[in-house]
Write a structure and sequence with these properties.
Helices cover 39% and strands 16% of the residues. The protein has helices spanning 42-48, 74-88, 100-111, 134-144, 147-159, 167-179, 183-186, 221-230, 246-249, 251-264, and strands spanning 3-5, 10-16, 28-31, 54-57, 93-98, 116-122, 209-214, 235-239. An eight-stranded mixed sheet has the order 1-2-4-3-5-6-7-8, with helices on both faces.
Length: 265
């Protein structure tokens, strides 16, 4: 299992070499959502590695990466991901991120635009956007009770959407969430990191950008439309009958959209 060494932690990533080599094709880096890990992208990585090298990092405190005491702000994730690119010798990459991964990808595009070839935001949040009280409530439970209780409540609330027709998705998500370290809930800086509002700056993004959302993902559809309006030349797709875990709920549609987007570049 490959790891990138940082000063105070090791960051795990999965690396899928391109089966059809082409020096003109830059790698794809796919970044996972909150309390998840690289496993949510494995099917997509296996598909896209027909043509591209695909890197699936585990954010600090997630998956197989180390979980230090602190360092869980979006600013830390941005520097961790750029540090990973440096350690892999990757000068530029296509960035794709879901939810928290999308927030991170957008942050990289704003601060290190020269490292980004294209940007794909999937069911994305944005720094400064409040999707609702659920996360605040879980934070309160972690503070007043403990991380195990918070994790159980988070799993219950998040997986309620996935019924018998989506059992395979529910199983994968629950596995990742149960194995998650919960370290960010114990971070003494949780809630104290400097506030950032990316909606004030997204108009500065001058990169090929695709925005994807599921029509059932009600808090995030208006945000996707706002991002589309603010990012000049961006492409927006709202997939019918799909919720937040867009790539798992509609894998063929997601891969088709992303493949066309990359080919058009």
């Amino acid at each position: 299992m490959p790891y990138a060494e940082f000063d105070d932690f090791k960051l795990h990533y999965a690396d899928y070499p391109a089966r059809e080599t082409d020096p003109q094709r830059v790698p794809i880096v796919m970044m996972h959502g909150f309390t998840l890990d690289h496993r949510m992208w494995v099917g997509d990585a296996e598909y896209f590695s027909q043509w591209y090298r695909v890197i699936l990092p585990d954010f600090k405190g997630h998956g197989l990466s180390d979980a230090p005491v602190t360092g869980y702000s979006r600013a830390h994730r941005i520097e961790d991901m750029v540090g990973l690119l440096d350690r892999l010798g990757i000068k530029k990459a296509h960035l794709a991120g879901l939810s928290m991964g999308g927030t991170t990808a957008l942050g990289i595009a704003l601060k290190y635009f020269e490292r980004v070839t294209s940007l794909t935001l999937v069911s994305t949040s944005v720094a400064g956007f409040d999707p609702g009280p659920k996360i605040r409530k879980i934070d309160e439970i972690a503070r007043t009770q403990n991380v195990d209780v918070a994790r159980k409540r988070w799993i219950s609330a998040t997986l309620r959407y996935f019924g018998s027709d989506k059992k395979h998705i529910r199983h994968l998500l629950e596995l990742m969430m149960r194995e998650h370290s919960g370290a960010f809930w114990k971070d003494p800086m949780r809630g104290k990191y400097p506030a950032v509002d990316d909606l004030k700056h997204v108009h500065e993004v001058n990169l090929p950008t695709m925005i994807l959302a599921g029509e059932r993902d009600l808090p995030f559809v208006p945000l996707a439309k706002t991002l589309h309006e603010k990012i000049s030349g961006s492409k927006l797709s709202i997939l019918p009958s799909v919720g937040h875990m867009l790539n798992l709920e509609a894998p063929n549609e997601f891969r088709g959209e992303l493949k066309l987007f990359l080919e058009d570049l």
